[in-house]
Specification:
- By secondary structure, this protein is of the alpha+beta class.
- Helix content is 43%, strand content 17%.
- Strands 1, 2, 3, 4, 5, 6, 7, 8 and 11 form a 9-stranded antiparallel β-sheet that branches. The protein has a 9-stranded mixed β-sheet with strand order 16-18-15-19-20-14-21-22-23, sandwiched between helices. Strands 9-10 form a two-stranded antiparallel ribbon.
- Strand 12 and strand 13 (422-428) form a beta hairpin.
- It is elongated, with a radius of gyration of 45 Å.
- Residues 4-10 and 860-871 have low confidence and may be disordered.
């Protein structure tokens, strides 16, 4: 072969391998010498990917929705309903576009307290899950409404915290029972929150489906750790077993036993064979615990923020919430993330965690620093709003604070908050339509009503206080004795106390105000019927006779008022003359001949002459009793009485009425007053609703008052709301009230209150509250303490424990004892009082003035023919 000729070199596999290894070695050497370039490349790729993910995450977060859940008072879900709600939340967390990063695929539960409510329950999540989350398994017991954006004003002091699961990762949280409510510790932690100081506390729980690949890796790690522990335990057990066996064989006792004991020939010595224990098989269910199954396993993130304008309150609130979360701890527990270095805490409030916390807080991203895997059953207490078993605090937003002189508020009592602060609470006057107070004598019912009435009076409101025993007037007098109330206060006292008694006057048949005639007749006749037990079945003739007589007298009074002579009007006592005196009857009927309707005139002409004399006794008897009592004779015997409850209502008067007792005559007076009040209130229909002046009627000792006019009192609780007149009733025993009154009271009561008393007496009241609290709890109340349910902004509040206001404490600044005597004289003067003897004399002489006026009305007809007609 020619040496100069070219030749070929054949590549072999060994040569290729050597070349490849050389290249790899060269590349590795270059990378090692230029490692910073590789680091920059990796960091740049990671930063670019993170930037893209965050941009997508912000875009996805902008499409979130919010729902507000408001539970009813009777909300009491079962475990299955709560579990189904958790399944809905987990399913809704995936209702995101395909491009949305995992951190945005979560549903957030927000528990917030800022003073507007004890604990607001809010759900935020993907907009695609709104339809799924709007229909809850809780049914109508929970109202779901679209949540508005929450805008918080900046607070001076803010603390943040993130809670993670500590303890055994496979162990569950504590199984907290539903009664009491699992949310109770959280509610208690924010119960002393004060909105005026800028206090705010909010807890956010993000729920996200557990990532499959992360969960599988975690399971493999847990199984590997479990097997390693089992092998380690088996090796430890084998080592201890060998040591124990060696110790036994080397002991003196074992050696003596071998020397003394017989052995077979040729048997040799030596140690016994020790069989080491075999590692126990690891069961996945035991090693993985709650992570064994994928079903209903979620990843959670728990963030908390507290704020206040007062230094130290936010930190104290966070400590309270941390203690509340300890209730859920067991094998696994919620622990605050971070470290404590002396007085400093390195956590969500410090770099580098704060920025990430705020981003997750604002955008709703779920990125817990550790898995935080839990099963839905462990979150039972947080998957629902507060239930009926949760004791909610009473906040200023639930029950407003009373302000002296504010006509929109009505004083209710003193409430002591969880932090020991006491404040005067009130309800809105426009919503407090009817009130009922029940409890034993001396328990504070009347004292609370007096405080409420005095506060209402000083705010410019009109009222009527009816007290059969008169004890309320001297109690209230020092606090009413102000010059601003002097011209508005009138005292109607029928007790006639003192050596020179003064009495006011009232004519139930007075027609000076243009009353409707048939309404006046009906009111007076019904008052007699209610006291005397008349009805169409038992006393039809008595009702007919009294009604016909009153129609004649009212017609005569209308004529007198039209003629400008109101002092010549008839009174109730002229009914006796109309029935028993032929001359007066002839004159009266002739004088009102053209003013009576055809039926009444026909009755006097045809039916009255046929009645026997004894038919009038049932009508004359109560009138005779009224005339025999000088006080009632003076009070009812004046033609132009001063008492006019319709005018008092329209002019915001303060009218104190003391009937004088509870005898038969007093009950008749009370019935007349009550029926006249009902007529006067109903007469307000001639005034547009917007111009009707609010007026309040307080009835102390309802048992006494309803004994005189049960149907009248019941009608008040049913009808007065329409005319802006509101009734407040007090009684010792609800069961002793007549059935119609009791039913109307309980049905329409805006406020239902009870002081201490016997359990049997209190049971009808607590039954209206569902026996929460029960009669035994209410019966043990201290004096002046009440349990009451109230109406505020259209919803019931309570029953709550309220201390009744004591006049000497609450209205101490209003007390004017040195003005009391002069103020009482002015109140009697406003009521038009006069000496009893003077009024009695005037009442006896009234018949002369009436006869003179009727004689002027009588047409010139021969007396004989008139007497024959009406005889």
């Amino acid at each position: 072969m020619d040496p100069a000729a070219p030749h070929l070199t054949l590549a072999t596999p060994a040569g290729d391998g050597i070349g490849l290894l050389s290249g790899l070695a060269a590349t590795a050497g270059w990378l090692l010498s230029h490692w910073y370039l590789l680091g920059l490349l990796v960091a740049g790729c990671w930063g670019l990917a993170e930037w893209i993910v965050r941009r997508l995450a912000r875009k996805a977060s902008a499409e979130r929705m919010a729902l507000e859940l408001v539970p009813a008072r009777h909300f009491d879900p079962g475990l299955e309903e709560i579990f189904r709600r958790g399944v809905q939340l987990a399913r809704a967390s995936t209702s995101m576009p395909w491009w949305a990063p995992r951190r945005t695929k979560a549903v957030q539960i927000r528990l917030r307290a800022d003073g507007s409510s004890p604990l607001r329950y809010r759900i935020e999540g993907p907009a695609g899950g709104e339809r799924l989350l709007s229909i809850t398994p809780f049914g109508p017991a929970v109202t779901v409404k679209r949540g508005r954006p929450v805008a918080d004003k900046p607070r001076k002091h803010v603390v943040r915290a993130e809670f993670i699961l500590r303890g055994k990762p496979t162990a569950p949280l504590r199984d907290v029972p539903l009664d009491p409510d699992p949310l109770q510790p959280l509610v208690d932690a924010v119960s002393d929150l004060r909105a005026g100081l800028g206090d705010l506390a909010e807890l956010r729980l993000d729920i996200q489906r557990a990532p499959k690949w992360t969960l599988r890796a975690r399971r493999m790690q847990l199984m590997s750790d479990a097997r390693r522990r089992e092998r380690r335990e088996a090796q430890r057990a084998a080592r201890w077993l060998r040591q124990d066996a060696g110790g036994v064989e080397d002991s003196l006792g074992w050696q003596l036993q071998q020397l003394i004991g017989s052995k077979p020939a040729g048997a040799g010595g030596g140690r016994r064979l020790v069989m080491p224990p075999v590692p126990r098989r690891v069961e996945p269910a035991e090693a993985l615990g709650k992570l064994a199954d994928d079903d209903h396993l979620v990843r959670v993130q728990l963030l908390v923020m507290c704020a206040s304008d007062t230094e130290g309150r936010a930190e104290a609130r966070l400590a309270q919430l941390q203690a509340a979360l300890d209730v859920f701890g067991s094998g696994s527990r919620w622990a605050m993330r971070g470290w404590h270095l002396g007085p400093w805490r390195l956590g969500a409030d410090r770099w580098p965690s704060r920025r990430g916390f705020e981003r997750r807080w604002e955008l709703g991203h779920c990125q817990p620093p550790r898995p935080n895997w839990v099963r839905l059953e462990e979150l039972t207490g947080l998957l629902k709003p507060p239930t009926v078993h949760c004791r909610l605090p009473l906040l200023a937003g639930d029950l407003p604070t009373f302000e002296f002189g504010n006509p929109e508020l009505l004083l209710q009592g003193i409430h002591q908050g969880p932090d020991g602060r006491r404040r005067l609470v009130a309800t809105y006057a426009r919503e407090t339509l009817f009130e009922v107070g029940v409890g034993k004598a001396g328990g504070g019912k009347t004292e609370r009503a007096l405080a409420q009435a005095i506060g209402w009076a000083h705010a410019g409101g009109g009222l009527m206080f009816v007290d059969p025993h008169r004890d309320s007037w001297p109690r209230a007098l020092p606090f009413l004795a102000h010059d601003t109330l002097k011209d508005r206060t009138a005292l109607i006292d029928l007790g006639a106390h003192g050596p020179a008694p003064q009495v006011s006057s009232w004519n139930p048949l007075d027609m000076r105000q243009g009353q409707i005639a048939h309404e006046v007749v009906e009111a007076t006749a019904d008052a007699f019927a209610s006291v005397l037990g008349w009805d169409d079945a038992t006393a039809p003739r008595a009702l007919t006779i009294l009604t016909a007589a009153l129609a004649v007298l009212v017609a005569a009074n209308r004529a007198a008022c039209q003629a400008g002579r109101p002092e010549d009007q008839t009174t109730l006592f002229q009914v006796r003359l109309l029935l028993t005196d032929p001359a007066f009857r002839t004159t009266a009927l002739a004088g009102v001949e053209g003013r009576l309707d055809d039926e009444t005139r026909a009755w006097w002409q045809t039916v009255f002459p046929t009645l026997p004399v004894d038919a009038f006794a049932v009508v004359l008897n109560p009138l005779t009793r009224l005339a025999a009592n000088p006080v009632t004779r003076a009070f009812l015997g004046q033609a132009a009485g001063v008492y006019n409850i319709r005018a008092a209502m329209d002019s915001k008067m303060i009218v104190w009425v003391c009937p004088g007792g509870n005898g038969p005559t007093d009950r008749l007076i009370t019935a007349l007053l009550a029926r006249d009040l009902l007529r006067a209130v109903r007469s307000r229909r001639d005034v547009p609703e917007a111009r009707r002046v609010p007026f309040r009627a307080y009835f102390d000792e309802l048992i006494t008052l309803t004994g005189a006019a049960p149907e009248t009192i019941a009608s008040m609780f049913e009808d007065f709301r329409k005319y802006r007149v509101h009734v407040h009733g007090m009684t010792q025993l609800l069961a002793r009230l007549p059935g119609p009154v009791r039913l109307s009271l309980v049905q329409n009561a805006s406020t239902l209150a009870s002081t201490a008393g016997s359990q049997s007496a209190i049971a009808p009241v607590t039954a209206e509250w569902g026996d929460e609290p029960g009669p035994d709890v209410v019966a043990a109340l201290d004096r002046f303490d009440h349990y009451m349910s109230l109406t505020v902004k259209g919803r019931r509040v309570g029953p709550v424990n309220i201390t009744g206001p004591h006049l000497d404490d609450v209205f101490a600044a209003y007390a004017r004892p040195h003005n009391a005597a002069a103020f009482e004289r002015d109140a009697r003067s406003t009521a038009g009082t006069a000496p009893l003897d003077e009024l009695t004399t005037r009442a006896r002489g009234q018949i002369g003035r009436v006869n003179a006026f009727l004689a002027q009305l009588t047409p010139t007809t021969p007396p004989d023919s008139q007497e024959k007609t009406y005889k």
